[in-house]
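Quick one:
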Amino acid sequence: MTAQHAKYRPPSSAARWLSCPASAGISYMYPNDESDAALKGTLAHTMLDAYLTFGLKPDTDDPDMDLNVIMAGDWIKERKAAYGKDCQMYVEKRLTIPQTGEFGTTDVVFVTHNTIEIVDYKNGYVPVDVYMNAQMLTYLLGAIAEFGERKNYKATIIQPNYHHKDGPIRTFEPTKEQVEWFENEVNYSVTNFENFAAGKH
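Output:
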């Protein structure tokens, strides 16, 4: 399944529109042709969805990507089992982000009585930092809006193609205060939509 994308403030671009609020109103006017890497990432996500939902193992002409998807899928299945019978797992979950009025589609959401965990698979080679990751926290806002507040929150990135010092699977557990701080940042960006801020973002 191919995920739809928000027009103005997609979670995947949260770092940009948080840093430069005005970019949300103009970036969609520019072409966004998908690169080969992006197309490969879409394929990996489609295979992960099929593996988790239907048990279909990937079988392409790229055995490394196949193995990476299986590794990610097996970890996700083990994570669900570790949470126990209380856990609900949602794959390719579309989440409405009330603070932006838009939505995002995350790879996996675990929901238990005490915990919400967002899991995102990254197929690329550019290192992705999980600590206070804007994309993941935006998804988390949507999950909290749909499932309600929980005692614990987690954000996990699975990135098998980059040899990170903390390993291919990295988890960050934001505090309630950090989530509230981030929500305020999102609200500020939406409210101050005319503010420009140039930079590498």
